[in-house]
What does this fold into?
Amino acid sequence: MLWEAHRKKEVNMKRTLSLLLVLLLLAGLSTAAHAEDVRLSSQALTVDGRSVACEYYNIDGYNYFKLRDIAFVLNGTSSQFSVDYDEAARAVKIVTGEAYVSVGGELAKGEDLSSTARPSTQTILVNGQKRSDLKAYFIGGDIGNNYFKLADLGGALGFGVGYDEKTKTIRIESRKETGPVTARLGLTADAGREYLDKIVFLGDSTTYGIGYYYRHGYSDLCPPSQVWTPSSGTLSLWDYDTAKIVYPATGKELLIQDAAKAAQPEILIITLGVNGISSLSEKEFKAEYSALVNNILAVSPNTKIILNSIYPVADSWKYQKDINNTKINAANGWIEAMAEELGLHFLNSHEVLAVDGKLPESSHNGDGLHLTGESFGKVMEYIRTHALPEYVG
It folds into this structure.
């Protein structure tokens, strides 16, 4: 009997604890459903250097703008985009590069509706692709508007976002039309060590070796302070907005976008995609890669970005079914085409490594994929002799 009474007491306590846990979870969900701090922003705004007045909110420390206002002020620039709404699907449709058609009321100011802010439940489509990473709030009740986090919009749509602390001014900058007529970098005079010293290398385990071999006596390479790779070595395209790299200046892990914002690299060479070719279609590959590039340019608009080719693999590479030279060649074509589309540069370093279309067995570290120090030396020489035109002469 004593045991039974004790057992009943224990069951009742568990039920009570379970109820309390549910209540706490519901309370947490209720808190998470609303922004904690919403207010009209008092900061100034410039777009390509000119002052613009419109209505925007500061939500939990971030600036949120009406989508149509941003489309309106960027219309006619290289960063223009169109906005449409599908009532039946409850979907906001954005197409980059298309002219924006005004519906009236853009840049208008109204009363403070901070108390009505709620997370938007509408679907966001950018160039037909669903973008769950674009955070938005619906403000204004039944006849309100979507307000988007400005930094997220810049990354997704390809315009720069900055902030001048001294003048308390938000800066929006359209992408400048400085891209080459042909993306592929051609043969140049040797730009030398000075050119290499201006470069940051972003990539996966196939990039890590640049800093590793430099530490082991290969002085023609670049030091770890110029290499951005994850501690795990793995960096897949689909993780572009969540993966962290070891930021050399502090040794701490940072999101790629945060690292770009902090460092403002003069030149950034990106070598990515070898993991992506095993599962991504051309459309998916380009979408993920483009999103990464736009995320970087949103916070570091003056960085000159070079998209590097994927290196070849050797016959001894074990995973030929998933990653092989046929797929690599196709992906390198996608990367070059994407560089053309985005107004960037393409570096075909693949050609300095491939012999008969594959990586020689003497050129890798034993696994058929990762380069030796000598092979990286060939890549560095190729970079110096296929330099950005403005750094030669």
Observations:
- Residues 38-173 form one domain.
- The longest strand covers residues 81-86.
- Confidence is low (pLDDT under 50) at residues 1-33.
- The chain has two domains: 38-173, 192-391.
